[in-house]
Amino acid sequence: MAGKELAFHIVDVFAESKFAGNQLAVVLNAGNLTTSEMQHIAAEFHYSETTFITGKAKSFRIRIFTPKGELPFAGHPTLGTAFVIQQYIIRKNVPRVSLSLKVGEIPVDFNYDSKPPVLWMKQNEPKFGRKFDSGTMSKVLGIDKSEIDTKFPVHEVSTGIPLIMVPLNSLKSLKRCKVDSKAYFELVAKTWAKSILVFSSAPYKKNSDLSVRVFAEYYGIVEDPATGSGNGCLAAYLCKYRYLGSSEVAVSVDQGYEIGRPSKLYLKASETDRIDVSVGGRVFDVAQGSLKAK
Does one domain contain both 81 and 131? Predict the structure, then answer.
């Protein structure tokens, strides 16, 4: 990036107001940056993720970095980056923005009926991995084995990046979770999924349906405020196991309350010959600036 300044925008994703949801930094015109430079910039912002718009073909090419490494897909970076593209590159209302990620093409649709609009991304077809016993997960989460809802399995799911889904019996149990780092790293050394999503059928707020927490220390994120990829996996899980009594899923989810970043995500899923998953949320513009050249 020598000899040039790069514009960036900071947005709050899956928020109902500014200074909530999950923070995201989006760097524009980043095609000349090396992978190492992107990683250093992401570590400097130190948000859950930072995205880099590296070019445009049929869709906008995007790379996603946590403070510790690159991801093939993540939910709130996808929505937040699509919002920045619509606002600052396209500069007009369009029904869809398509992003080219390492997992493939991800379309983001804009619903302008509400203000600010709700953005929806259709995620990849889910894949299901290993199941785990409740005893193993209770040790990692620092809760009693009885607090895990054994009517449903603890199961790895991916719609682009895998997470372990853990159903809990109560909101109280969800609030009590405190990850044991030693047990966590011993577990993820042997698993496909490196992140854990715990959920309860009791929401934080009366106008929501479920509550969620996500732990991803492997990626340098002790707890994530709002996880679009993880909630896409949750939507697929709810559909597959008829958790709500039906394969049709249309719910709102609370996340981020335990770390002071209240977030709301909207989930949709249905099953015919495959499970289709979409995740939605609002995005708020917070700040913009430029990265100084070397």
Answer: no
How is 76-134 classified by DSSP, letter by letter? Answer: HHHHHHHHHIIIIII-S--SEEEEEETTEEEEEEEETTSSSPEEEEEPPPPEEEEEE-H
**Beta-sheet strands, E only, within the chain:** 6-13, 22-27, 49-56, 60-65, 70-71, 96-101, 104-111, 118-122, 127-132, 154-158, 162-167, 195-200, 210-216, 221-224, 249-255, 263-271, 275-281, 283-291
Residue 75 resides in a domain? yes
Number of domains, the chain = 2
Mean pLDDT of all residues in 108-132: 95
Cβ contact 49:76 at 8 Å: yes
CB 68 within 8 A of CB 220: yes
Interatomic CA distance for residues 97 and 69, integer angstroms? 25
Domain limits at 75? 6-123+282-291
The answer to whether residue 1 sits within a structural domain is: no
d(CA 132, CA 254): 25
Q: Say which CATH number the domain at 36 has.
A: 3.10.310.10
Query: Measuring CA to CA, which residue among 33, 67, 29, 63 is closest to residue 49?
Result: 67
To the nearest whole percent, how much of the chain has pLDDT over 90? Answer: 95
Average pLDDT estimate for 48-60:
92
- Are the C-beta atoms of 46 and 39 separated by less than 8 Å? no
